[in-house]
Amino acid sequence: MNNIDDWLNNPEVFLADVAATHQFGCDLSNKLTAGTVLLLVGDLGSGKTSLVQGLAAGLGVTESITSPTFTLINEYLAGSCPLYHLDLYRLTSDEVAALHLEQYWEGWEVEPGIVAIEWPERLPDRPAEYWQIELTHHPIAGRLAKITKIQEFRSSMTF
Ligand SMILES: Nc1ncnc2c1ncn2[C@@H]1O[C@H](COP(=O)(O)OP(=O)(O)OP(=O)(O)O)[C@@H](O)[C@H]1O
Ligand SMILES: [Mg+2]
Is this model's pTM higher than 0.85 or not? Predict the structure, then answer.
């Protein structure tokens, strides 16, 4: 894939194994700019953290990427742009609201970067524009990723 539009035209990507998930994240990171929000939707074990590991590798982050389930937010500032990795699994919507995560995409206090959020169902307020990546277990092996760009007024724009 050379162009982000290729993904929008063919939004389903088959990821045969974890290496493919890493590569997909790496390819994505090269197309995204600071300020992009990625909402990673998918069941337990569907590959969300693996995708973030690929994003981080693509940005040149050398630290190991672990799930921020307990820390909630991991910030990686040593790559070509900041990477913010959030995992909201353990939080309620009220607890998420109290964190004021909009600082990550509205650019106050936090240097703009790529924001990758696991379990975004817990977000009370979403950004005006974001990419949603839905990961599902493939019935035989591997995973399927579906990438969609969502813009203001909740209009879904899968081309
Ligand atoms: N395309 C793939 N095919 C097969 N296995 C994969 C694929 N991508 C990731 N995995 C494997 O799936 C397992 C779970 O991956 P990962 O931790 O990234 O999922 P997750 O969605 O972040 O889970 P959680 O909801 O618990 O945070 C790991 O063992 C990982 O190696
Ligand atoms: Mg995870």
Answer: yes
